[in-house]
Write a sequence for this structure.
């Protein structure tokens, strides 16, 4: 593996020469804000794995348990702020303007809170609810009970989040592929790269000519497939890449 200094030098040169850039982010980019990742050491909630709770089956058999988990996460996220990694993404958007896109698997909204505008939230947003009866979607930041009801039809609400076994929003997927197929650079940050379809995005972009960079504290299944993989915290590495790289 290339040493870190060299890798960062190459990445900075690539960014300088690029016309457009995509960030593909996962839970690791919010880890330094104090939000546990899904598959990290503190990733379990009680004894459950994300896959056991984030599913239509789990919700139909025990909606209270699923809401308890989401309410725990909502209250946790409410108390957290964007970190240096999110702020670096804002700097990159300032530089690339409308040629910059974040495709995130995160539902915490911290990219937008930091100030990014062009964010594709592939898996939804934890502050949005959807009625299981009438389909009404609302942003709702209030503290919810474990069986929240729709204000229109009194149906049971669910988090407006894409669960395991559910299809992603087609329009968002289309937008994501459109930028991935035309971008010069993809920076994959803080994702284990095992949940599809996001797991194949870096490969898709690379096949169509993008230079693909990975930033993660650990090696992932994608590490050997990307052009440069840097081991380190997102909040430390991203600022190094962005610093003094103003176009
Ligand atoms: P994971 O928890 O699977 O992976 C987090 C990644 O971030 C791992 O590769 C860690 O090594 C890395 N990481 C941790 N701290 C970091 C730091 N400070 N800097 C850089 N990297 C760090 O999370 P995701 O890949 O986002 O879906 O998970 C994908 C999807 O699975 C999520 O969107 C969620 C989950 O189930 C749904 O809920 C639908």
């Amino acid at each position: 593996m290339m040493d870190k200094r060299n890798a960062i030098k190459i990445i900075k040169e690539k960014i300088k020469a690029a016309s457009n850039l995509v960030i593909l982010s996962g839970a690791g980019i919010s880890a330094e804000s104090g939000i546990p990742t899904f598959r990290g050491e503190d990733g379990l909630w009680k004894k459950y794995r994300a896959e056991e709770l984030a599913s239509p089956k789990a919700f139909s058999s025990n909606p209270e348990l699923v809401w308890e988990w989401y309410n725990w996460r909502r209250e946790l996220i409410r108390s957290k702020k964007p970190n240096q990694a999110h702020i670096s993404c804002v700097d990159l958007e300032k530089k690339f303007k409308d040629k910059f896109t974040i495709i995130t698997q995160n539902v915490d909204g911290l990219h937008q809170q930091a100030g990014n505008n062009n964010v594709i939230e592939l898996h939804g947003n934890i502050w949005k609810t959807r009625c299981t009866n009438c389909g009404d979607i609302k942003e709702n930041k209030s503290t919810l009970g474990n069986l929240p009801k729709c204000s229109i039809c009194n149906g049971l609400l669910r988090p407006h989040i894409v669960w395991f076994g559910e299809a992603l929003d087609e329009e968002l997927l289309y937008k994501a592929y459109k930028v991935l197929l035309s971008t010069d650079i993809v920076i994959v940050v803080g994702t284990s790269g095992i949940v599809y379809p996001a797991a194949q995005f870096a490969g898709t972009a690379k096949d169509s000519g993008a230079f693909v960079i990975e930033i993660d504290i650990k090696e992932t299944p994608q590490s050997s497939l990307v052009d440069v993989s840097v081991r380190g915290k997102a909040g430390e590495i991203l600022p190094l890449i962005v610093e003094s790289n103003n176009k």
